[in-house]
Amino acid sequence: MANHIVKVSPLDGLAKPAGSNVSLEERRFLGKVTLRGNPENKDFLSKVKDVLGVDLPLTPLTYVAGGAYTVHWVGPDEWMIHTQEDGEHALVLALREALEGIHSQVVDVSDYYVVMRLSGPAAREVLAKGSPLDFHPRAFRAGMVSGTRYANATIQISQLDDQPSYDVQVRWSFAEYLWNYFVEAAREFG
Amino acid sequence: MLLIECPWCGERDQTEFTCHGEAHIVRPKNPDELTDEQWGDYVFFRSNPKGLHKERWVHDHGCRRWFNVVRHTHTDIVYGSYKPGEPAPEVSEEALKGGKK
Hints:
- Helix content of chain A is 23%, strand content 33%.
- Chain A is an alpha+beta fold.
- In chain B, a hairpin with a 3-residue loop joins strand 1 and strand 2.
- The chains are: A alpha+beta, B alpha+beta.
């Protein structure tokens, strides 16, 4: 068995946006866990809160950041939890133990997705070039998360602040495509 | 382009969704007892109206949930969405005549 594991990212070695109005960084090897369960089951909600330290967001299109975990609403019975690199192992064990006997699902998807952070004054324009989602502040603000698409990639996007900064989560196999699309889309904004 | 209202995510661009045909097709409970004609009816034949049509949509680039939509097949106007198990929204005569939602 290998005792030395080298992690590689599909974004290794790719060029970044050249100008200063858009910045793009990979959030390398972020831990990612999907959680599914019945939000009407109080037992489920309280057991999850015991582990995460925060209430699951039940309002559509919102996320909650607290301590080590950021918990995103994905659907009415589904959440996406982000944590620091390698934090997913302990989280999966803790959630599975806490939810023993409760109809639910906990899956480590850290290697299935890649998260990149897009920020800067022109970040909103870059997003608007490839996505049908309305990124105007009247429709999408800090604290919100949504599934949508960018060009041909299915993404999950959350807004972190009014700079604006966004975390964009995409399937591993689409990461290079999306990254290069962002870099190309950012060119006109300098 | 259509704007489809996802019951959870709100109004979104049509390209985030896929339509999967007529809604409320109930699978027969006794397939063994059906004639070929009856089974063919269930599998292949749809109402295909010119007018209001209840159809199944899935928000596959968003929350990935299934729901139903009432759409007019001639004007393409979407009169509303509803979650599985919920009753379809009523469409008034005026709304139909006026050609508006």
